[in-house]
Amino acid sequence: MKVRITEYLDINLQTKKWCCNRCGYEIFDAGENYKKGCLIYERDPREVHNTVLPESEFNFAPDPDWCRLIEIYCPGCGTMVEVEYLPPGHPLTEDIVIDLEQLLKKYEKYEEYKKHEKRGGRMV
Question: What's the rounded Cα separation, in Å, for the pair 13 and 112?
Fold first, then answer.
């Protein structure tokens, strides 16, 4: 059974892995940061944030000496999973921490309820 965590990420409860919900690729262990199993691309913020006027030195881009743009992609299909703005040298953030054991317990109870309900009984 897969559980949706974000727009692009699921957790497969049988394998205990992060999965791309677009292509099904198993990215990394669910107890770890999913970004460790993704493709990472660092961009200059000036590539994304264009100048205000043509031939102008002014723009809305953060200073590349102070900020880097990190794009995180699924290795299976290339879907962009996440984007981060980080100072140079800063490690990738761990933005999602899942209590996997509690999640497993929750869905075990759910599966038990569904089986019982199909037989016509009610669980209290």
Answer: 15
